[in-house]
Structures are given as C-alpha cells and as structure tokens.
Predict the 3D structure of the following.
Amino acid sequence: MTAIARTQDPAVRSAPAAAWRWVRSAASGIRWYVTALMGDGAYDTYIAHQRAHHPDAEVPTERQFWRDRMADQDRNPGARCC
C-alpha cells in the first residue's frame, strides 16, 4: 500500500482523532478526580443540599463556608495524619 493510499484509508485517518479523544477523555477524568479529591465542588454541593432540604435557612457565603469547614476539621481531625 502506498503512502497516498494509506492517507485515503478512513481507518488510518481516524486513528489520530481516536487517540486525541482518548487523551481528552483521560485528562477530563483526571481533572474530575483531582477536583473531587481537593473538595473544589464542596460549596456547590452544600448549597444544593441547603436549598433542597432547608430552603428557609440562611446560606453562608463561600468564604464563610470554607472558614467553618476548616475550623470543623481542626476541632475534629478524624483520620488525618496531622
């Protein structure tokens, strides 16, 4: 098969596209894992819970939420190493 015939073969042309889709999917999964591990979505999850289960309660600012969360972790270290 010549080089020109290979470039016209749809399987050969789609291989780089499939590889990029796989790389993007893997990168997306890694990004999700790291952000979940670091707790980046914790405030959004908390707000959704508050609105669903306690609609009349006052919702703290994001800054206050993180202050309260860090203070709670300092008071109750649980299974942390430090």
